[in-house]
Automatic annotation (TrEMBL):
SUPFAM superfamilies: (Trans)glycosidases, Beta-D-glucan exohydrolase, C-terminal domain, CalX-like, Galactose-binding domain-like. The keyword Transcription regulation does not apply. It comes from the Bacteria. Keywords: Calcium, Glycosidase, Hydrolase, Repeat, Signal. Its EC number is 3.2.1.21. It comes from Streptomyces glaucus. Residues 204-309 form the Calx-beta domain. Residues 1-27 form the signal peptide. Belongs to the glycosyl hydrolase 3 family. This is beta-glucosidase. It catalyses: Hydrolysis of terminal, non-reducing beta-D-glucosyl residues with release of beta-D-glucose. Transmembrane segments: none annotated.
Length: 1005
């Protein structure tokens, strides 16, 4: 799933020295305080230095700024002018130095400035940073204005108009109160999608502070559920900025009125007034009680709004609602079969409620939290990097519980199902256990261990209140230029099929009986189908070169390569399936490329009908927008094709309305809607959400625990593939003096890869963990580390150079979109210097093979480390011989990019290292020749006939090690092809034939 990039962290301001105003001030108003006059008093700079700076989602998106002399300048001689052409997001900021003093704006009503209008009707966002230790750890508050005028106009933005940003905070979670006493600056976000120009002048603070900014009334919650006959307690609290006592009295009048509950029958009406006298301490609360009445009849939920009228302070943003919980209805009875509960609930639902259940929104895109109830939303998600502030397990659980609480205000109280992309651990959460990416798990050839990593992931995800994981990715990666290669277990469908045990790790038993456990989540098989087979250059999405492109295959190839893992996942009971962004072009069907989100023949025909999938289909991120036609057509086509829930992160209101309209117009049959909603409700019941909608945090203490990290460490160790080991360079010896270099030796972000904390991932210290260097120091305390190998190399016994890629995700990582398969110049230089000076081992930390052929002769040991995650100790375990190298290549390692795509089974196959290759550092490597292989072949064939899988695999493994020892560095095409074929045969249970292929490779060596 891709995630539209969130707005960059804005930052902000200039020195605020009050200047004498030439204009007469309004009585009792303080004089305006200049912030920016744009006469050159504030330099162009960058954070953390004080100054004006630009930012954007890519290198083209930051605007161009200049201080331009203009005769029509509203103030002084110059204005700030600029041009922009923004595809993602971009803008500029004026930030105070992060170590400098913040400014106090609390005496003023708001901020204003001159803006030269272009009358283009476009919205410009204005953001301020409030509180915190520095500009990088403050809270972001935002508002906007519309350019619907021509020429200069003074824009006034009262501080009461600013709202706390829910979609992004740099670190966040200070107090969620706009205090204005510690301000760090401002930022302007310019409109995207078309070229434009702007001019700005005279930023200043104006007016006297609005009293409601200093004093405010809040309630403990917006929703107060209560059992019929119980009494709801609504807590009303008065607060002030800075926590000062009240300067003036505050009164709160209250009255129950409106709602769906009937006064006198469902509740006892209440009204009255409470007063908080002057001098009352900030944080003082009063409790208002609303008694409900019991009538003993089964009912849906009923609402009782408690209207508050506040004098002397800012009123709560929402009217609190008391809700008498639904009760006595069959769908609420956990003793009944799920099928009966679904039928009862479905029969009670309106078309609008059904449409809401089919709608999934991004949590940061909610216009207001009340939209969950207003639009009967069935699901929310966190896209990559969409996290609460602070990003802690506790904050996740609290956030999701607050969303679930909103569903209590709906008539039927259907809980949300919340989803995340936990693709290698609970990777959105700082401090969670980050597993190796799937390509590394494929290298382990260990389905049991893969299942265990998924079980750890499920436990950590569910402990934060999330019951649904958009994983596993069951793509079969056929071209390493694809930016999602690392999300695949490998290039061989048999390998991907074998690793589908992760479904059981996430969900438990195939019949769904474990889904209501506090350590299990609903799994998602993605991306159906063929996303790993897209042709290079076929993508039409932005600058992508292969991701979201076209997979052109015969029906036989589709069945054998791309569909096979999904059959297994369905058999394993996977609860949801996500279609691919890509298009499928089936040779011979005469349709040409058709987006998977529109292929009813595949979604309804193959997946649901032929395979018998009984879960629900969830779309990818805004994927229906890529279908041809208008929006109504997109909705109609996708739902009729078999999509059950649609991920419409920002368009949830439009989608729900359009879906209802299409059904009422007869263009979507309501039976199709009922089928979709039944599938969704079935999984919600199986997950136990109706009985326990809120987070069970009993397992939260295990998030990132030593026990969980031990599983990740084991997986990291087993994922390491030893490609070359001349002269027994590995394992390292304790007495050796070790020299470590390379860009990825000491970078937890690089070794974790994309989909870590943020969508694209990032270099640096982004989450707790152990880098490869830190792990190595535990074995060699006196090792020398020099990232660029600039430190003297003399006097060392062995060098370890850790090189590879920096993080990326999806199409942003496609080769040709700013990426290639070559090592960086700095990494190449480090390899050359260290390997020329001493025995050296090179570790490649990457999401796909890197091209190292021209340096292979100078390298003594070469290791494919993939993306091992946070547990660098696992890498050190095999480097120092604590565990043997046992990993095998899950993809073919090419000699050059010109060979791509190259895969096991190709008629022409001459790689650097074949699929399945992986040397070992076992104490004793099996010995033998042709006679030994002949005997192993006979025994393997017998094991195959007897169904003795463990024995058969062991016999083939022994034969493989014999062949690798013989071939060594003489891997010709005659060796590589049968060697790779043997590993495929092994995975499909044909042990005798596998040894025959290995014997063929041995003879060619």
């Amino acid at each position: 799933m891709r995630r539209t990039a969130l707005l960059a962290c804005a930052t902000l301001l200039a020195g605020l020295l009050p200047l004498a105003s030439a204009r007469a001030a309004v009585a009792d108003d303080p004089a305006p305080v200049p912030v920016d006059r744009f006469e050159g008093e504030v330099p162009f700079a960058g954070p953390p230095a004080e100054g004006l700076f630009t930012w954007g989602s890519d290198t083209d998106d930051p605007p161009a700024l200049a201080l331009a002399a203009r005769d029509d300048a509203p103030e002084g001689d110059k204005v700030l002018s600029g041009t922009y052409d923004i595809s993602g997001y971009g803008g500029f900021s004026h930030e105070f130095a992060s170590a400098g003093p913040p400014r106090d704006w609390s005496a003023h009503r708001g901020v204003r400035f001159w803006w030269h209008g272009e009358n283009n009707g476009r919205k410009i966002a204005f953001e301020i940073k409030d509180g915190g230790a520095d500009g990088g750890s403050s809270e972001l508050w935002t508002t906007s204005f519309t350019d619907d005028f021509t020429g200069w106009k003074r824009i006034e933005l009262p501080f009461t108009d600013f709202a706390y940003r829910t979609d992004h905070q740099p670190v966040g979670g200070i107090d969620h109160v706009l205090g204005l006493t510690a301000m760090w600056g401002y930022a302007v976000t310019l409109p995207a999608g078309a070229k434009g120009a702007f001019a700005m002048d005279g930023v200043e603070l104006y007016g006297r502070a609005d009293p409601s900014l200093r004093t405010f009334v809040t309630t403990g919650s917006a929703v107060y559920p209560v059992d019929e006959g119980g009494t709801a307690s609504v807590e009303v609290t008065v607060g002030t900025t800075g926590s000062a006592p009240l300067a003036d009295p505050v009164t709160v009048a209250y009255e129950t009125a409106g709602g769906t509950a009937a006064a006198g029958r469902d509740y006892t009406p209440v009204r009255g007034e409470v007063t908080f006298p002057a001098g009352t301490a900030s944080g003082t609360s009063r409790t208002l009680r609303v008694p409900t009445l019991k009538d003993r009849s089964a009912e849906t939920a009923e609402t009782i709004p408690l209207r508050l009228t506040v004098a002397g302070a800012k009123a709560p943003a929402e009217t609190p609602q008391v809700v008498v919980d639904a009760h006595g209805l069959p769908y609420l009875d956990g003793r009944l079969p799920v099928k009966r509960r679904v039928a009862d609930l479905l029969a009670r639902m309106s078309l609008e409620e059904k449409a809401g259940q089919m709608t999934q929104a991004e949590r940061g895109a909610l216009t207001a939290p009340g939209d969950i109830a207003a639009y009967d939303l069935g699901s929310l998600l966190s896209g990559g990097g969409s996290a609460p502030t602070p990003n802690t397990p506790e904050a996740w659980a609290k956030m999701i519980d607050s969303f679930q609480l909103r569903t209590r205000a709906t008539r039927l109280q259907i809980p949300l199902i919340y989803g995340v992309d936990a693709v290698h651990g609970h990777n959105n959460v700082a401090g969670a256990t980050i597993m190796p990416h799937n390509i590394g798990l494929g290298a382990t050839r260990d389905p049991r261990l893969a299942q265990e990593t998924a079980a750890v992931t499920a436990a950590e995800v569910r402990a934060t209140g999330v019951p649904w994981d958009f994983a596993p990715c069951l793509c079969v990666a056929r071209d390493d230029r694809w930016g999602r290669t690392y999300e695949s277990f490998g290039e061989d469908p048999a390998l991907v099929d074998a690793m589908a045990t992760v479904v059981q790790g996430l969900q438990g038993r195939a019949d769904g009986r474990d889904l209501d456990r506090a350590d299990k989540v609903l799994a998602t098989a993605k991306h159906f189908v063929g996303d790993g087979g897209t042709a290079y250059g076929s993508s039409t999405t932005g600058t992508y070169t292969i991701d979201q492109g076209v997979t052109r295959v015969t029906r036989q190839e589709l069945e054998a390569v791309h569909l096979a893992p999904y059959r297994t996942a369905v058999d394993r009971g996977v609860g949801t399936v996500m279609p691919s962004f890509s298009s499928l072009d089936l040779i011979g069907d005469g349709r040409g490329p058709v987006k998977m989100h529109a292929r009813a023949d595949m979604l309804d025909g193959v997946l649901k009908d032929r395979m018998g999938f009984d879960g629900f289909v969830i779309s990818d991120w805004q994927a229906i927008d890529q279908l041809p036609g208008d929006y109504a057509s997109d909705v109609r086509t996708s739902v009729n094709a078999g999509l059950d829930m649609i991920m419409v992160p920002y368009a949830y209101r439009d989608f729900r309305t359009t879906l209802v309209d299409e059904v009422r117009a007869g263009r979507i049959d309501e039976r199709r809607i009922d089928d979709a909603v039944s599938r969704i409700l079935t999984q919600k019941f199986r997950l136990g959400l109706f009985e326990r909608p809120y987070a069970d945090t009993s397992g939260a203490a295990d998030i990132g625990s030593a026990a969980h990290r031990a599983v990740a460490r084991e997986a990291a160790a087993e994922s390491q593939v030893l490609l070359k080991n001349a002269g027994g360079a590995l394992p390292l010896k304790k007495h050796q003096k070790v020299y470590v270099a390379g860009s990825n030796a000491d970078d937890i972000g690089n070794q974790s890869g994309g989909w870590t904390i943020t969508w694209q991932g990032a270099s640096g210290d982004i989450t707790p963990g152990t880098t490869v260097l830190e792990a190595m120091r535990k074995h060699s305390p006196d090792l020398t580390y020099s990232e660029d190998a600039s430190a003297p190399t003399r006097g060392h016994d062995v060098g370890v150079v850790v090189v590879g890629e920096t993080p990326y995700a999806e199409g942003a990582g496609d080769v040709g979109n700013g990426h290639d398969l070559e090592l960086s110049a700095a990494d190449r230089a480090a390899v050359d210097k260290v390997c020329a000076a001493m025995t050296c081992a090179v570790l490649v930390v990457s999401g796909r093979p890197q091209l190292i052929g021209d340096r292979l002769g100078a390298i003594d040991a070469l290791v494919a480390s993939w993306l091992p995650g946070t547990e660098g100790d696992g890498v050190a375990d095999v480097l120092y011989g604590r565990r043997p190298f046992t990993g095998q290549l899950p993809v073919t390692w090419p000699k050059s990019e010109a060979q791509l795509p190259i895969n096991v089974g190709d008629s022409s196959y001459d790689p650097q290292f074949p699929y399945g290759w992986g040397l070992t550092t076992l104490t004793k490597v099996p010995q033998g020749g042709a006679a030994t292989l002949k005997a192993l072949g006979a025994a393997a064939a017998a094991a195959e006939r007897a169904g003795a899988e463990e024995t058969g695999r062991a016999l083939v493994a022994k034969a493989r090690l014999i062949v690798q020892h013989e071939a060594a560095d003489r891997i010709t095409e005659a060796v590589a092809k049968p060697f790779a074929d043997a590993d495929h045969l092994l995975l499909t249970g044909r042990y005798g034939a596998a040894v025959q292929k290995l014997t063929q490779a041995y003879r060619a060596a």
